[in-house]
Amino acid sequence: MALAVVNYPTLSEADFAWIQSFREAHDPLYFHVVDPHFTVIFPTEEIPEQTLIDHVRAHAKASRAFDVVFRCAILGDPDFQGHAHAFLVPDEGFSDIVRLHDRLYTGPLASELRLDLPFVPHMGVANTPRPESCKTLIDQINAEPFEIRGRFETLDVIGYDGETVWTIEQFLLRGSSDSEA
């Protein structure tokens, strides 16, 4: 079983419904596996579960919640699992996610940091076997101005067995709607 850390951003009902409707039509790899999310720590089988939980807990206590705002889609990895991917990338909150990612990849996770791939905070919304088809979907999303506002308030330590994702433990960031400032 692999462990990872994700954030399920707090979104309006309308934005969540739009994202899920688009994903249902265009995200055959992940729609039925996981809700819209940011991956902050990528799946690993090298870190003991309790070590990861303790590490994430400490960083969650020291990190503040923040807003994210999406206004565009981009082409992500053009060949991950034989598919090209469409990503919503936040205009606002981008640097906060990068800094949180970098802080988490310290201590027991330092050896897990991949330096061969740039980290681009994103929410996957589509994938296709051909990059050209995926780019068409991206152009469709970007054809009209849009703005999806959300809030990054939690870190979920998740398990992934290749077919199913489940939350092992969730941590609130400081200043989230359910935590004390």
Task: Tell me what you see in this structure.
This protein has a single domain, classed as Cyclic Phosphodiesterase, Chain: A, CATH 3.90.1140.10. A hairpin with an 8-residue loop joins strand 4 (66-75) and strand 5. The protein has a five-stranded antiparallel sheet with strand order 2-7-4-5-6, sandwiched between helices. The protein has helices spanning 13-26, 49-62, 94-104, 131-142; strands spanning 2-7, 10-11, 38-44, 66-75, 84-92, 123-128, 148-152, 154-160, 165-172. The radius of gyration is 16 Å and the shape is globular. The chain is α+β, with helices and mostly antiparallel strands and 181 residues long. It is built from four helices and nine strands, in the order ββαβαββαβαβββ.
Shape: globular
Structural class: alpha+beta
Largest sheet entry: 5 strands, antiparallel
Beta content comes to 25-35%
Secondary-structure element order, N to C: EEHEHEEHEHEEE
Number of domains: 1
Strand order of the largest sheet: 2-7-4-5-6
Q: Percent helix among the residues? A: 25-40%
Number of distinct beta strands:
9
Q: What is the CATH superfamily?
A: Cyclic phosphodiesterase
Question: What is the CATH architecture annotation?
Answer: Alpha-Beta Complex
